[in-house]
Structures are given as C-alpha cells and as structure tokens.
Design a protein that fits this description.
The chain has helices at residues 11-14, 24-35, 53-63, 78-82, 87-104, 124-127, 132-152, 161-164, 183-202, and strands at residues 2-9, 40-47, 71-75, 112-115, 156-158. It has 203 residues and is of the alpha/beta class.
C-alpha cells in the first residue's frame, strides 16, 4: 500500500537553505517509513519560498491535485506578515486553505495537521530589524488566529514556534543563511509531528 503525504506551505516547508532530505516533510516521511516498513510512502510538496496564502491558493488550484492524501500538513502565513499584507487577507484565506487541504485529504479533517508559523525574530536576520519584538507580536497574531480557527473546527494545530524562539541561544537551530530553520530545528518539528502523524495513519 502507498501512503500519500502532501505538504503545503512556503520556505519553511520546501526547506530553504537546507538539503532536500533535511526539510521537515522529508524527515517526517523518513520517520514514518522507519515505523511503518510494510508500506511505501509518497511525498508531494506544494511550497515555494516567498509564498503568501494567496500564492498557495493559486498553486493548489493550478496543480489539479486529486483527493487521495492520507496525511496533509499546512504551514503558511509568514510571508503575509513579512510582506506587510493586510491581516484581513489571512483571516479570509487561511480558512480557504484549510478547506482545500481537507478536500485533498479525502475530505477528512482528521488527516490534516496545521503547523504554526516559525518566528524569524530569533535569527540574525530578524535581529537586524530596528524592532524585532514587533515581528514576534505580529507572528503571535497570525498563530493565535490559526490556532483558534483550528480549535473551533476540531482541526489539529501543532505549535513549533517555541522551537524557533531558541534560535538566538542555540545557533544550531538556524540555517547558514541566518534566517531559516536548520536541519536540527526541523528534526525538532518532526518530534512534535510524528506521534500525531502516526495516530492519523492508524485510523
């Protein structure tokens, strides 16, 4: 049997500045495979550095995907914040993306994991801003909205933001570009995601 996993997102999903097998969807796929040797695992990634919620909606629509996925992860929103988009865009488009993700997960919302947005204030890049704390405040607003939407709709929401907020104290969590998470940071994401993903695939 082939288990199909779809990862939707932006630079944090495609793994900007880390190797192909270092990004979190690949690490999650490998971890699941190690636990579940009898099945094949297929991973599809729809993500690109710089993508906002609007870009991701367009990409999903253009890719003509089928509703065959046993597991879907969604991590999106940092570029809405970074590009200074109006927050109302996220309020409108995040629920649209959740609905699209669920429809791709065979219409089953229990197959979806929404992942919180990392906080790039805790990187050398983020520290070069006049007011890094304002980045964190805005990221908190995005994550609070996503979390509350997920809780209201009984959708799994995993917080990995705290991991990325250790990036100044633990520089091994930041990639060589001084902005994105490292392979080590993504491994910590997977520690949070793996038990949930295993439970989803058992159902």
């Amino acid at each position: 049997e082939t288990i199909n996993y779809l990862a939707l997102g932006d630079s944090y999903t495609i793994g900007e500045s880390v190797c192909e097998t270092c990004r979190f969807p690949e690490q999650l796929k490998s971890a699941l495979k190690n636990i579940n040797l009898q099945n094949n695992f297929s991973l599809e990634i729809i993500a690109r550095t710089g993508w906002t919620t609007s870009n991701l909606i367009s990409a999903i629509d253009n890719n003509n995907l089928s509703s065959k996925y046993d597991l879907v992860t969604l991590l999106i929103g940092v570029n809405n914040q970074y590009q200074g988009r109006d927050f109302s865009i996220y309020e409108k488009e995040f629920p649209q993306l959740v609905a699209k993700a669920i429809s791709l997960a065979k219409g089953d919302k229990t197959k979806l994991i929404v992942v919180s947005i990392p906080d790039y204030a805790y990187t050398p890049f983020g520290q070069s801003y006049d007011n890094p704390t304002s980045i964190s405040t805005e990221i908190n607003r995005y994550n609070a909205f996503a979390k509350s939407y997920c809780e209201a709709n009984s959708i799994l929401f995993i917080n990995i933001t705290d991991i990325t907020r250790q990036g100044l104290n633990n520089t091994s969590l930041v990639a060589n570009d001084g902005l994105h998470p490292s392979k080590d940071a993504y491994a910590l994401f997977v520690q949070q995601l793996l038990p949930k993903a295993v439970a989803i695939l058992k159902n």
